[in-house]
Amino acid sequence: MCFILFGMPFTASAEETANFKDTQTSVTMPGSIIAMTGPHIAYFAVLNKVTQVFYRNLTTGEVKQITDSPNSKDSLNIGLSSDGQAVVVWTEYQNAKNSDYNHIWDVYSYNLTTSLTKKHNGTDANYTKLQIEGDYLVYFNNFKGSFYVYNLKENKETFIENGAFPLLSNGKIVFTTRDDSHVSRNINSYDPKTGVTELLHTLAKDENIGFSNLFNGKFYLYVADQFSSFSSPKPHKYMLLNVETKQVYNLTDWQTGNVYAYMTMGNQYAAFITGMDGKDQFNWVDLSTGSIQEMSNPADSYRYFRFQGDQLVMVNKSDLKFFYRTVNGTEDRFASILPKPSPAVKPVTVQTTVGANGGRLMVPGGKAILVIGKGVLKQNAKVGLTSSSVTDSKTTIISTAWTVSSDKKWTKNATLTLSYDPSLSAGKNPVMAHYDPKAAVWKPISGKVDAKKKTVIASISTTGTYAIIVK
Predict the structure, then answer these.
(1) For 10, which of 50, 259, 306, 350 is 20 to 30 Å away at the CA?
(2) Would you kindly state where each structural domain of the chain is located, as residue ranges?
């Protein structure tokens, strides 16, 4: 499940005070708009006065610049496909308007495994509220009150004419619809596999569903307001709907303070900020009981937060520090200052065409040599060696990582030789390893070490990323 950074996790009982302390070294990221799923992070950062999309893997340390376009970008999100591939999605502004004179924002995705960028929307419109999970991508036409469901596996786009603010989780989509008075009073669910829509709950006549809402696959957290009121802000209250039992909880009474979009939901808890009498307040909710409790730490320090398992990921609004918290203990606000983004380092690449008689590739300086023997390829193929930015904080890598590529399958093993820096080995044995992107780990393979030449030579059966690590 993926969330934009609006949230927090709690495991405290009703009698405990929810405070925070760091449980690991802070993670710092440039930019303030961040989306996460597991170890995968997508974020916006300004580079040469233009907002670009970046990616970072918290497990391997890999950092990648995804976009390089001059267009404005919005609605950032990231998710995992059904086969475990990380996919980043966002919208880009086009300097044009459609027939309804609405600004055009196109929907794009980038697959971290295939390195392919794709535009998804078939119709020009102002799209927002991107949601991605498994094989489904959902985007909302803000001016038409409709949304699309895109099947990433089948490359098929389905149009839902009357539906606003769709939220995707655990294979379900929850959205709102308007009545004849154009008031959003109905909460509905949609199953993208079967195409079945179900009405879950209808609000009272004088109530309207606002834009602040969250869904975790079982619970729907939303803000209801009195749309007929002339006060500003309108009286509102926070509500929770169990979409399985259709039970509704009133989390707060009607209030007239500020309404914020700063809210989050995990599997067990939800949290949001309320504003009363000029003061912001963190609140957390036990989803199993619908009970709510105020938190002691000041809400005005944070503006981006979310649940990650039993941890709270937070971004300080003043200095954009990004770090983890857990429940219990005293609050510790330690966090590192954000680094400034820098242009992506251009990788070193050598490529050639190799036929049935075999061939040899060597990068400048001889740090990587790939030998394709006779009979490895049955037909001509483009074979390459490219330096990689893949790293892993848990693994000591003592060489440049190199990605071996080929547009044709091999029938036999090839031979790869990589040079390493012995000063980084700390006396441990160097071994060649192949990177498994799905498990996000380096897997050692058998090879022969030449300590004099400072190289390791190994027989490899597949393409992918290789490096020298220590055991």
Answers:
(1) 259
(2) 3-327, 349-470
Instruction: Identify which of 296, 226, 232, 302 has the alpha carbon closest to the alpha carbon of residue 264.
Output: 302
User: Per residue in 295-317, pLDDT tens?
Assistant: 655 445 555 566 655 555 665 55
Q: Work out the burial of residue 83: count CB atoms within 10 Å of its CB; fewer than 13 is exposed, 13-18 middle, 19 or more buried.
A: exposed
pLDDT confidence of residue 342: 44
Alpha carbons 74 and 90: distance in angstroms, whole number: 6
- Ranges 27-36, 265-274, 346-355, 373-382, most confident: 373-382
Q: Domain 349-470 is in which class?
A: mainly beta
Interatomic CA distance for residues 127 and 68, integer angstroms? 21
Rounded Cα–Cα distance for residues 114 and 85 (Å) = 9
Identical fold for domains 3-327 and 349-470, yes or no, is: no
CA distance 61 to 63: 6
What Cα–Cα distance (Å) separates residue 67 from each residue in 71, 107, 115, 386, 411?
10, 13, 11, 20, 36
Superfamily of domain covering 3-327 = YVTN repeat-like/Quinoprotein amine dehydrogenase (2.130.10.10)
- Can you tell me whether residue 81 is helix, strand or coil? coil
User: Do the beta carbons of residue 74 and residue 90 sit within 8 Å?
Assistant: yes
Q: What is the pLDDT of residue 98?
A: 57
Q: Is the previous residue joined to 233 through a cis bond, with omega within 30 degrees of 0? A: yes
Q: In Å, how far are 2, 50, 148, 149, 401 from 163, measured between CA atoms?
A: 22, 33, 9, 11, 47
* Spatial distance between the Cα atoms of 284 and 299, rounded to a whole number of angstroms: 12
Report the C-alpha dihedral over residues 10, 13, 18, 20, rounded to 10 degrees: -60
241 pairs with which residues across the strands? 220, 248
Q: 3-class SS at 43?
A: strand
8 Å CB contact between 65 and 119: no
Q: What is d(CA 392, CA 394) in angstroms, rounded to the nearest whole number?
A: 5
Q: Which residue has the tokens 């008689």?
A: 357
Task: Name the residue with tokens 């099947």.
Answer: 151
Phi and psi for 144 in degrees, rounded to 5? -100, -15
* Residues across the chain: 471
Question: Whole-angstrom Cα distance, residue 169 to residue 344?
Answer: 33
Residue type, 150: Y
